[in-house]
Amino acid sequence: MQLLNASGCLDALTAPDIARALDAFVTKTITPEPRDGNSPVRIAETDSGMLNAIGLANPGRERFLSSTLPQLRALGVPLWVSVGGFAAHEYAETCARLDGVTIELNLSCPNVDEAPQSAAEIVRACRAATTNPLYAKVSPHAWDMGETVRALEAAGADGLSMVNTLRGAALDVRLRPKLARGSGGYSGPAIKPVALAAVLAARRATDLPIVGMGGVTSGRDALELIACGATHVALGTVLFSDPDAPSRVHRELVEESLQLGFADPEGAFCAALDPVVTMEN
Fold first, then answer.
1. Residue 228 annotated to the active site
2. Domain count of the fold of the chain
3. Residue 44 pairs with which residues in a beta bridge?
4. pLDDT value of residue 279
5. Tens digit of pLDDT for each residue in 174-207?
């Protein structure tokens, strides 16, 4: 079981010690061209989480490859590169330029317009362009998670990351949206039940590795995702408030496992799948 960061929740070059406390570091999403992102206000707190509408701000593919990626490699941490785009060929072109990394395809950002192709079509194009491990980051809004997962696997995905943020909005005291864009990606403790349900559904449909994420603030949260079928866990919003979260969650995960009678966290893998009961008519 590896502990990662969710893409966009940690700058490894600004906080290298935090990045090194993870088992692997996931970059911010990279697009072919530089992006300034959406206009401010782009971040807003809520009662039980955070809204963001950053809009995939990044330096673009060429600068990332020539400057950022070499600096990240020097940290000595296994790297996952989050790849974005607005058409299947854009994703594939970036994947073809990467080597020696795991690629996470950001197929579900709620803050930008999506590519016209389906997620499976994008995965298929990227699979043809690279031999690097390819993970598909899945939207929590999928109507049938099992069907979505099976389509991504058939297209060539090596693994899944789930879930991305939920689309949400918040109003200020004048009853106006807090975010300039109106809505954004909602993350934080409140979305953990959504993440658990998504991982459960995905695990019933596939044997692929799954990076579970969404609302993880403690070792117990991480263990619950593992029990639902996650093989790895990612920390997101918690990293903004607790820079010690990677070390703390690692420690708590072992402690929680032992308290429940498991020799290690992997012992709890899929523990939540067996007792599911279906209601008869």
1. no
2. 1
3. 51
4. 41
5. 999 999 999 999 999 999 999 999 999 999 999 9
